[in-house]
Design brief:
The chain is mainly beta. It has 2 helices and 12 strands. It has helices at 12-20, 42-51; strands spanning 2-6, 23-29, 36-41, 57-61, 64-75, 82-89, 96-105, 115-119, 123-128, 137-140, 149-151, 170-176.
Length: 178
């Protein structure tokens, strides 16, 4: 479980001081819950996220254990350091919007014909409860040739999971290399 602290002050000077000490600034929020301004050790947070195997994970802040999902994060444009993260509390039985990663498996036929595999959408926005939330959406690209795409309407999402994007949106495809 990831341990965090509650930020007493949300001023710019306090945020700078925490970042200098190696903390990552975080906001924890949820439907019907009071927002929590928190901070986590940056290196511990990154290690924990790399080793987790589900989208939802547990954090402990001020003696409370919360099951959260990363909704948004901000990186420094120059150094690519993680600066800020928004964590949403995953409440049981509440339909909420999540962003599920898309994973392409297999080797496309079009790669042999000098094509490039393009992942158009890296995270697919879905609406579901935490119980139905998939860890990722896996797409088999072995049958894709140059110029072929897998559209949103071609995907079969798990039961109870809805995506409100246009069904004509391409998810993954093979384009012709120039």
């Amino acid at each position: 479980m990831l341990e965090g602290i509650v930020r007493d002050s949300i001023t710019k000077a306090a945020v700078k001081a925490l970042r200098k000490e190696g903390y990552l600034i975080a906001n924890i929020y949820g439907k019907g819950l009071e927002n929590i301004s928190a901070a986590f050790k940056r290196n511990d947070f990154i290690k924990y996220l790399r080793n987790k195997n589900t989208l939802a994970f547990d954090v402990s802040v001020a003696g409370k254990t919360l099951k959260v999902v990363v909704q948004e994060y901000q990186k420094c444009p120059i150094t690519s350091d993680l600066l800020h993260v928004d964590l949403m509390v995953a409440q049981a039985g509440v339909r909420t919007s999540y962003k599920v990663p898309v994973v392409a498996t297999g080797s496309a036929k079009g790669l042999k014909n000098k094509g490039l595999l393009m992942l158009h959408t890296r995270r697919l926005p879905v609406k579901c409860t935490i119980e139905n939330l998939p860890n990722n959406i896996t797409i088999d690209v072995a049958d894709l040739d140059t110029g072929d795409n897998v559209l949103l309407r071609d995907l079969t999402l798990p039961e109870g999971v809805d995506c409100y994007l246009d069904p004509r949106v391409p998810i993954v495809g093979v384009i012709k290399a120039k």
